[in-house]
Automatic annotation (TrEMBL):
InterPro entries: HATPase_C_sf, HATPase_dom, His_kinase_dom, HisK_dim/P_dom, PAS-like_dom_sf, Sig_transdc_His_kin-like_C. Keywords: Kinase, Membrane, Phosphoprotein, Transferase, Transmembrane, Transmembrane helix. Its EC number is 2.7.13.3. This is histidine kinase. GO terms for molecular function: phosphorelay sensor kinase activity. It holds the Pfam family HATPase_c. Residues 236-443 form the Histidine kinase domain.
């Protein structure tokens, strides 16, 4: 059987090269030694000393080459094991070996700082995961639970040590790992039931695919929003109703006293007529307010049909006769939308722009463009602008002395029912405001 020769190690190659380097000089010295007239014993002793010296020097060369490499290997081994306290001696920047040791020491410092940073970041992440009020789960590719936070433990009614390693079906979370990555649904868990928001995202750890699942309880937030909405509604209705009932009650009492007066004053009929007129006016104002609220609350779903944009914009622009309205023609285009609702929306926006332009004797401009399958409709006025636009779309909020606060809220409701958006901002190129409405070519419920 043929014997396989193993390659020489690095130390053996260095030692062999050092010996080969010493052969010419040592051989020449031995040859010259035997050419000299010396006793044979002396010749052999000196020759042995020369050969031994050559072997010793080769060993020293081997040691000088191998020891620093062993030191460097020990340092790298310590770094691989996570020991960053070891440093190599002899690190210096004026020779190659010292430079390598110096870089190894610098690598040790960098890795130590990174490890401390990773530990701190991991501790911070663990604290955040434990304190956030959402349930967080991480599943491996085979749908086994690998991570759960404290809220997730409470949601499933068990501690983490009894949850980790179980599959999603056993945990009752398999319904969350199917369907859209972001959605809301109703579900009952061991630790609570209600409406939940699901967020799911894939990530990789150790080269393996994992899924991160986040469940947010929307019930409390929805109840809080509902409570605040009712509070705002009650405040608005109470304010408007009281504004009408207070003068009605006061005038009714005065009229009753007037009827009881004996003898009646000479101008009683005139006072009665004026008082009843005020009562009728306040009653009519309250009726208009309640009708506006009912219209906002009972907006029907859009009945879609083909709407030619240019004709629609020009028709509404002609209805505003208090100020000049310039129509900036855009490209010919059509929408599938509810024409009556779009009329109401644009009438409200143009009328608001006209109200603002009346204060400065300015004008109004309306135009449109088409981009990425959406209509961009804009209305600009030359009014004074608005100090803040935060509450303009809040129902019943108004900056006008006789406004109801319904127009913009109703307009936004119409636009959003068509799958679009509406914004109002102060103009940056001139004084006044700019309203932008985006409407898709087909609404969210339109047939293809």
């Amino acid at each position: 059987m043929k014997r396989i020769r193993r390659p020489l190690t690095h130390e053996q190659r260095v030692h062999a090269l050092a010996l080969l380097t010493a052969v010419p000089g040592t051989g020449t010295a031995v040859v010259l030694l035997f050419a000299v007239n010396l006793p044979p014993l002396v010749r052999w002793i000196v020759a042995a000393l020369l050969v031994g010296l050559a072997v010793m020097l080769a060993g020293m060369v081997r040691t000088q080459m191998v020891r620093p490499l062993q030191t460097l290997a020990n340092l790298l081994f310590a770094l691989r094991r996570g020991d960053f306290a070891i440093r190599a001696t002899g690190a210096r920047g004026d020779d190659a070996l010292g430079l390598a040791l110096m870089e190894a020491n610098a690598l040790s410092v960098t890795l130590r700082e990174q490890r401390v940073g990773n530990l701190e970041a991991s501790a911070l992440l663990s604290t955040v995961m434990a304190e956030i009020d959402v349930a967080v789960f991480a599943f491996s590719a085979d749908r086994k639970l690998r991570l759960v936070n404290r809220t997730g433990e409470r949601l499933l009614g068990r501690p983490a040590e009894r949850l980790l390693g179980l599959d999603a079906e056993a945990l009752g979370l398999d319904v969350c790992l199917h369907g859209q990555a972001t959605r809301t649904f109703r579900h009952a868990f061991a630790g609570g039931s209600g409406r939940w928001e699901v967020r799911r995202r894939a990530f990789r750890q150790g080269g393996q695919r994992h899924e991160l699942l986040v469940l947010t309880d929307l019930s409390h937030a929805l109840r809080e929003e509902e409570r605040q909405a009712w509070q705002r509604l009650v405040r608005v209705l109470s304010h408007e109703i009281n504004n009408s009932l207070a003068p009605i009650n006061s005038i009714a009492g005065s009229l009753l006293d007037l009827l009881r007066a004996d003898p009646p004053p000479d101008d009683r009929e005139e006072d009665l007529r004026q008082g009843l007129a005020v009562v009728a006016g306040r009653s009519a104002a309250l009726s208009r307010f309640m009708s506006s609220y009912a219209r906002l609350a009972r907006l029907p779903p859009p009945r879609r049909e083909q709407v030619e944009v240019g004709e629609w914009v020009r028709r509404v622009a002609r209805l505003e006769r208090r100020v000049p309205v310039a129509v900036r023609e855009g490209p010919p285009c059509t929408l599938r939308a509810d024409g009556d609702q779009l009329d109401q929306m644009l009438i409200n926006v143009v009328r608001n722009a006209g109200d603002a332009a009346l204060e400065t004797e300015g004008g109004v401009a309306v135009g449109w463009s088409w981009r990425d399958g959406e209509l961009l409709l804009w209305v600009e006025d030359e009014g004074m602008g608005i100090g803040t636009t935060d509450n303009l779309f809040v129902p019943f909020f108004t900056t006008k002395p006789n406004g109801t606060g319904i127009g913009l809220a109703l307009s936004r409701q119409i636009v959003e029912a068509h799958g679009g958006t509406i914004t109002l901002e102060n103009r940056v190129d001139a004084r006044g405001c700019r309203v932008e409405v985006t409407l898709p070519e087909r609404g969210p419920d339109s047939p293809d």
